[in-house]
Design a protein that fits this description.
With 82 residues, the protein is mainly beta. The chain is built from 1 helix and 8 strands; from the N terminus they run E-E-E-E-E-E-E-E-H. The strands form 3 sheets. It has a 3-stranded antiparallel beta sheet, with no helix packed on it. A 3-stranded antiparallel beta sheet has the order 4-3-6, with no helix packed on it. A two-stranded antiparallel sheet has the order 2-7.
Length: 82
């Protein structure tokens, strides 16, 4: 699981331009060529499966700040033996 928390947003007067989180295949899993842009808003948390195709659009001005982390299942003893 990937988690992103936006610390600043593009709507503020002095911040950044661009930097949308783009997720593919969320509206139609059969269409991974169709991306959905999430506009960065300070305080917003977005969580999604890490294997979901995604990108951040280019930042054209300013600085974009986020906290990013990943969570994964703890392996069971059976998983380690494989």
């Amino acid at each position: 699981m990937s988690v992103v928390v936006f610390l600043n947003d593009a709507a503020a007067p002095i911040t950044f331009e661009g930097g949308q989180l783009r997720l593919y295949g969320v509206l139609d899993p059969a269409r991974d060529d169709l991306g959905v842009d999430l506009e960065p808003r300070a305080g917003t948390l977005v969580a999604f499966r890490s294997d979901l195709l995604h990108e951040v659009t280019p930042i054209t001005a300013g600085d974009r700040f986020t906290v990013v982390t990943w969570f994964r299942e703890r392996p069971t003893p059976d998983d380690v033996d494989r």
